Amino acid sequence: MSTFQHIKPAGKAQFKDRYTTKAAELLTPYTEGMKGDIAILGAPLSKPSISHSGASFAPDAIRRCLSSLTTYNIEEETDISSKRMIDFGDITMHPTSIEECHQRIYQATKEVTETQAAPFTVILGGDHSITTSTVKAIKETKGTVGIIQLDAHHDLRNTEDGGPTNGTPFRRLIEEGHLKGEHLIQIGIRNYANAKAYHDYAIENGVTVYTMKDVRQREITELIQSALIQLEDNKVDTIYLSVDMDVLDQAFAPGCPAIGPGGMDPDTLAEAVQTAIRHQKVQTMDIVEIDPTLDIRDMTSRIASLLVINSLIN
Amino acid sequence: MSTFQHIKPAGKAQFKDRYTTKAAELLTPYTEGMKGDIAILGAPLSKPSISHSGASFAPDAIRRCLSSLTTYNIEEETDISSKRMIDFGDITMHPTSIEECHQRIYQATKEVTETQAAPFTVILGGDHSITTSTVKAIKETKGTVGIIQLDAHHDLRNTEDGGPTNGTPFRRLIEEGHLKGEHLIQIGIRNYANAKAYHDYAIENGVTVYTMKDVRQREITELIQSALIQLEDNKVDTIYLSVDMDVLDQAFAPGCPAIGPGGMDPDTLAEAVQTAIRHQKVQTMDIVEIDPTLDIRDMTSRIASLLVINSLIN
Amino acid sequence: MSTFQHIKPAGKAQFKDRYTTKAAELLTPYTEGMKGDIAILGAPLSKPSISHSGASFAPDAIRRCLSSLTTYNIEEETDISSKRMIDFGDITMHPTSIEECHQRIYQATKEVTETQAAPFTVILGGDHSITTSTVKAIKETKGTVGIIQLDAHHDLRNTEDGGPTNGTPFRRLIEEGHLKGEHLIQIGIRNYANAKAYHDYAIENGVTVYTMKDVRQREITELIQSALIQLEDNKVDTIYLSVDMDVLDQAFAPGCPAIGPGGMDPDTLAEAVQTAIRHQKVQTMDIVEIDPTLDIRDMTSRIASLLVINSLIN
Amino acid sequence: MSTFQHIKPAGKAQFKDRYTTKAAELLTPYTEGMKGDIAILGAPLSKPSISHSGASFAPDAIRRCLSSLTTYNIEEETDISSKRMIDFGDITMHPTSIEECHQRIYQATKEVTETQAAPFTVILGGDHSITTSTVKAIKETKGTVGIIQLDAHHDLRNTEDGGPTNGTPFRRLIEEGHLKGEHLIQIGIRNYANAKAYHDYAIENGVTVYTMKDVRQREITELIQSALIQLEDNKVDTIYLSVDMDVLDQAFAPGCPAIGPGGMDPDTLAEAVQTAIRHQKVQTMDIVEIDPTLDIRDMTSRIASLLVINSLIN
Amino acid sequence: MSTFQHIKPAGKAQFKDRYTTKAAELLTPYTEGMKGDIAILGAPLSKPSISHSGASFAPDAIRRCLSSLTTYNIEEETDISSKRMIDFGDITMHPTSIEECHQRIYQATKEVTETQAAPFTVILGGDHSITTSTVKAIKETKGTVGIIQLDAHHDLRNTEDGGPTNGTPFRRLIEEGHLKGEHLIQIGIRNYANAKAYHDYAIENGVTVYTMKDVRQREITELIQSALIQLEDNKVDTIYLSVDMDVLDQAFAPGCPAIGPGGMDPDTLAEAVQTAIRHQKVQTMDIVEIDPTLDIRDMTSRIASLLVINSLIN
Amino acid sequence: MSTFQHIKPAGKAQFKDRYTTKAAELLTPYTEGMKGDIAILGAPLSKPSISHSGASFAPDAIRRCLSSLTTYNIEEETDISSKRMIDFGDITMHPTSIEECHQRIYQATKEVTETQAAPFTVILGGDHSITTSTVKAIKETKGTVGIIQLDAHHDLRNTEDGGPTNGTPFRRLIEEGHLKGEHLIQIGIRNYANAKAYHDYAIENGVTVYTMKDVRQREITELIQSALIQLEDNKVDTIYLSVDMDVLDQAFAPGCPAIGPGGMDPDTLAEAVQTAIRHQKVQTMDIVEIDPTLDIRDMTSRIASLLVINSLIN
Asked: pTM for the full model?
């Protein structure tokens, strides 16, 4: 790659072990016609967040963490070094028009999905406001969408009080007719993290809600299986997995804007995601609400990078 | 509140969702004759601590964390937005006389309790040295006190070596005749965190001691129930719950001055507190030993704020 | 204030020296008809910033720093404890519409100015994008505006590439006809901090530009005097002082989003501001581009609070 | 100790409770002929690490943490205040020759072991590269070595690509003939943390590998017992316990250079170590890969100090 | 020093250059009858501080910084490696009685001074409250004391409002008759850092006050010379130099509890100290108000260590 | 660059102002035969450092800072957007052989220089140990080398005590015959930062030494001019500028491993470098001893990036 024996291009890793493939090496910038195992698209938008958020830095942080993972899953004795993650890059955001940003996310997600470059797409937020746009795009390309949302919050706030914030994505999808309430299953909803009015809204609109008490009392795999069966029964065409990292306990996910105690541990989340993505209809996942400027040693992004790489094993 | 449409007073929250009540909104500054569900009193004293401590900043930090909680307990499907937390404010401390500080804590706690403004009082420390003063005040207003202490340490140190430090509150209560040893139940005591001499002292004085091994091997609810029955049997008039946050593992409570591995997780602590405060005689709780200057993103204060808000459900 | 001898309301200072007045005590929340010496208005907006910015936290940080200043200027032997700073509070921002935010800043500034509550108004940003809105409001209430801008950057970027960002306020004022180029004087412009195109734009539009070389080679008081005379000669009705804190060297202002070496020291900046506000036509000042989340021990906000309090001596 | 009543030598603890012995007080600098219960030797080397590492600061940090532990194990009701930890000090490292450093570690470990000052030796790394040198020394003084390695990584990398890095210690031991593959038992190996090639190498060389899945599904005591029996059966003369702290989950061990989710919790690690050291042949333990410059409040070193002090109870 | 070739005692420096003497090597723990060039005594007390302060950690921090200085002053071409700094250690503080702490400081300072071990004594605070005690001790051993105080604050607060805080040392000395106002010269007093009442008190009591304006407009050496002459003229027996590090600008002394802009730079402070200690009557110096827990990379303690080492050249 | 309208490749800047060229855009990866204005080569080596150092991260940090500079020097009214910085990338280092690292630096520097791709080469360290290797390479390609070293330290330590550390580069050059003492001019040498023995060595070997006192008392341009004339007179073929960033005061360069007060300010350093590189024989510059892991907001690297970009104006 270099003309000189002991010089490498700026920005490349210093040390290379000839027998080790890093997960980040599976990332291949998209070129037309390319096919791969999963597609990656960054949606670095966090200005719509109600509280100050640097979640726009997360796509870079998650990719950076892929550099510290290898491609070998020893528990499954599976090496994914021959898999390809097509990296579509990041959506460019407008500095001062959030409406334009959401529109671009919609359009970019649609264009990326239409390439059919990979059977599974991972969208790296950004805050949760992006999900209205991405789900709209998925619906147009893949049909009726069912959603499994791993989250401490309903994200069903009214839009009169602040427009399309990160507290509103599923409300907007329902109100704009892109999602039926019964096609939305929320897992991990936490005490004192939501208004009663929004729980009521969820129930009134047929949304299925599993609280952290449910997670503590039942097996996560069982909850996910129930969710998958329910969405199957409801005849959705495609299932979208929306992972708000604040579903995790604050000790494990110190980098989420809205941290708190009482959440999941990373093994439970990983198991939830693994169980879900083995289902054929689960074709899209987003990972949102990581603010690397608040995180400790990229801990939260490291968990996210594990979810990404794990999605290559299904 | 403001003369102008889009201006709010300095210090108030920027964003307001019309359907969401924040736990902090339940805080109402006390005025004479006011009645409420719980009373809050800050005891911002940490100069008596053996090691450098900023626990004096904790009352503000815990109140601040109440601003990020809502009033809705989804697991119990209970909204506490109609409850009132009477905020008596913070006791003013003397900058150079610790004796005077302890005296003021005693007096203020007594005066606050005598208002009978609420059936349950939460005292926000400060370090653990405050508990001698508060318990003395409670005894004078409510009669014989039984104590359930959640703590990694006995806090039964001799007072010759340093006076009324944060290592001595229960020793002083016993020695000054305000507390019988058999009315003190310690839960969560940890390895290598105490001298043998003080364990001996506890045993010799009839104090009940449950170590972390007991916590790991038995259900926390069962331990608390045993404690409550034992105090009932011992005919105490009122039960005081003293929560030293360092009973938690360091990964969950990074903001305690004396952190270490091997402690409880927050769910266990929350369950312990919930179980206790459902008992009618449990009328006072203190939360001590959080140093917000050492904490990470107020994680430890967040757990404390959850204990506070949870005490409205009983 | 309290019913009890040794209790104070939550949030108030612990220690009070009877002979010391803190600058923050001069802050009085506005009520209709009130008159004072200066008016304070917070414009906590930083979402328009090109780079991630928490400048929205600055109004609170600057007020907080006023709590660590007294009211006594020993060098002038002047005590300002009888002065009154009317605190109008902070403009509420829309979470997802930057256009609406700018409109609210315009309207609130206009309404506040129209109260004629004080002869001098200090607007606490926020990022520099707020200045288009505030100057427009000032122009409508006070007539032709001349601006002295202390800044490392021209802030004359084109608006096609990102809309009304923090790089564009003076361009927008000029293009929208609210400001003549010859009524804008920029001081402190720094090497490698601006594109040549924007220096050209400044020159072509008659803007006066003093670089840091000018600041190093001439007395700052002389530069300011020249600026004042020039604006006088140009018949402006009112002079607006816009202080972008990044005019300071990074060692002195670590909390600015766009830090760098080669800037002013705080004494020079304070002298510049003092010289300017002694002029009768200087009636408004903004202080922008402090991000307290990046700052070290509020150092940058401390300098800002000094500029605020100093504006009471003129 | 001092000529004056209220003066203490610089560096000594401010406060002394007459009934409390701190674990650090058991540390006694070695003098010839001294006998004790365990020997401590620091190997502050981290320059061989593949990534930037300050693990050379760990011996000091772990000793510092011994100052915050007492000598009383309340769960076992055992006071170890009469035990003696012989502190041999730290090996001096050559600033620019890593080969010389490894040689010095070998020689110092050998000399220290040959003193037979204590039945159990704890070596405080440093990074994992030290283990080749220490095990070689142990083998020469105690005979055939069996190793139980608690680690997220195999540390069986090839040496062509970087020489004796912290990724290679067990490979070098095997290749240089100091260790048989069947005498090496690895526990806690994690997904995406190793190349397939090195798992293959382990298997081909008869190394026993327990992944985190094994740890999650079986009792840790059972795994350790199996390991001990297997090494017994294989007729090793002595068993060496090598504790790479990154076997812990990142939330519990934030100070390891190579952190990640999905690891052990500290109770499991402590139980593993306790189970192992009760076995008579377990005579040496190293604790490696703690970088105090990355740690949070010495949390990771605190866990290490607990492993050290616990090794006095067997 | 060690039995083994490549092992050093725990806590000693790893690397030793045979031609380099570190300033810390000049520190020699005091034994009876010892004579040296300067005496060092730590007074690690900060509980009297009005605001939260970790200044009790400063004596250790300053000694630590002496380890990164050599003994060679290249500007004076003077090597002080043959000088001896007698380290008396640190005064032990009572955890809960500030009165007792002040008494111990008085007594220890007296005892140390009475040893006549060195012609110059440096007392390392601690907060400024210690100075009342140390000056009282000096007065009893050396006679009438004149003080040159380098400080942003008068430290002449009333004692009714908080007792002997760090804001009161010189007031207490004057009121208790240990110091005449005309024997106190304050240099570096800053705007908005003091109440008018205390400036008035200074003037009424004959205290000489030089503000930062005086420092900016006159040579610091000239100010110090004036001060020395004035004290000489006033027939003091000994001169005490009290260095409150907050006399420095916040950019240079980020570790002082009460930071702010507008202070001295370190060269000016060093020159002030050097000028003063060349005078024969200047026999004692304290350095106070460094909080290492707030400092950045020990910057403030580094400046202090330079003042200490420089005091060996006079 | 992308197939999609609103998507950009991962890692690229989000916002682009069409009229602004960032300095980083001038960086062009080298391809054979390429010609440019300056050549950049990273030497990310810091394992030879006596103290723990992350200076190996500096080349990346300095390049990152070039992204926040534009190409326009307003003081000179010069736009350098048409200049080209050829980026040769970074030398790959051997993880465990420092000797091999130094050899690679020598060889890579030689190969890069031999391309004659640019008239001026900037080498980004790394620690100061790299300079022996780079100067040897320059000598072989350009002839007799004269050095102007801006540094707080002599860097003339003996090599017996630690081999080729960052304290020895100029000693090794002299001892190995690559440099005559009279061809070395050291500027900025600081008090208590060096052993007398090394100052003696400098003088005995004809090295010219200017201390910080010289820098304070004379114009820096005059010092540099003297140095240039002296080297000219001594008939060197090429002049090498070696910039150890710790020549700066700690307040301005918080990211140097060996910080301290009493150093230069950035304007003086920039002027020194500018004055030097205008001389035709000054053809190489290194910038060393920045540890980005210790720095605050890349402040020290920002100054370095300014020195780099300024070298395009000569």
From this structure: 0.97
